[in-house]
Specification:
The protein is α/β, with parallel strands linked by helices. The chain has helices spanning 5-23, 38-49, 75-82, 103-109, 146-151, 171-175, 188-198, 207-210; strands spanning 28-31, 59-62, 64-67, 94-95, 115-118, 140-143, 165-168, 179-184, 217-220. It is globular, with a radius of gyration of 17 Å. The structure holds 2-amino-2-deoxy-6-O-phosphono-alpha-D-glucopyranose.
């Protein structure tokens, strides 16, 4: 049976992380959560459990985290479960913006992010940078939009349980990464990707800021629309 496009996307993303880690063992990664990266993490976990990847000198920075949770799974717990627990990444190198006063300074003190993988929200958010976020933003607290709360409700017992607040790497944090890889799964993300490349004013669609970087890599499980402006 031919590999699904989701499998191909996940494999390419996992390979990019693995190659980076092998080339530079003390690499720093910016890591997303959500449904999209699950298979990528499964592959990385398999390779790590087989001893093919050495994370002992690496550091991982979660892109974002809920605040004031009253239920559901934190993003730190998600990353533990889907990746960290299968690796030899030291506990002290597993960072979340919820635990840190100055995340950007911390990232810089580790030499900066080598690869940041970002998912895409249906409203075009990246990490938890909602529409209206400034390009000049660094790690900051946000109020989640209703559409984001609804999109993430399936990870909680009810919509009421979905937090209203979160903390997220800013657009500048992401743009400062040496490499940015966008992961997009599902047709609903196709129109967002297309729009993000067409807009001249990015203020209403945070993904658009990522396309300020001409070297951005997009991995998707559909044919990626590319627009030449
Ligand atoms: C959440 C996360 C984002 C992620 C988005 C997409 O809102 N904060 O970082 O990109 O979900 O998730 P999914 O891959 O489940 O569509």
């Amino acid at each position: 049976m031919p590999e699904s496009k989701y499998e191909q996307m996940s494999l390419k993303a996992a390979q990019a992380v693995a190659e980076q880690l092998k080339a530079k063992p003390n690499s720093c990664f910016g890591l997303p959560t959500g449904r999209t990266p699950v298979r990528m993490y499964e592959l990385l976990s398999e390779w790590s459990a087989r001893g093919e990847l050495d994370w002992s000198q690496a550091c991982c920075f979660g892109l974002d985290e809920y605040l004031e949770m009253t239920g559901g799974e934190s993003y730190a717990a998600f990353l533990e479960k889907h990746l960290y627990s299968s690796t030899n990444l030291p506990n002290t190198s597993r960072y979340t913006p919820a635990d840190c006063d100055n995340y950007d300074e911390l990232i810089a003190s580790h030499g900066g992010l080598d690869i940041t993988l970002i998912g895409v929200g249906v409203n075009g958010h990246i990490a938890f940078n909602e529409p209206g976020t400034f390009q000049a933003s660094w790690t900051h607290c946000v109020w989640l939009t209703e559409s984001t709360r609804r999109a993430n409700a399936e990870f909680f017992d009810s919509l009421q349980q979905v937090p209203y607040k979160a903390v997220t790497m800013g657009i500048q944090t992401i743009l400062s990464s040496r490499k940015i890889i966008v992961l997009a799964s599902g047709e609903a993300k196709k129109s967002v990707l297309l729009k993000a490349q067409q807009l001249d004013d990015c203020s209403d669609l945070p993904l658009c800021w990522a396309f300020q970087r001409p070297d951005i890599q997009v991995l998707a499980d559909f044919d990626v629309p590319t627009v030449r402006k």
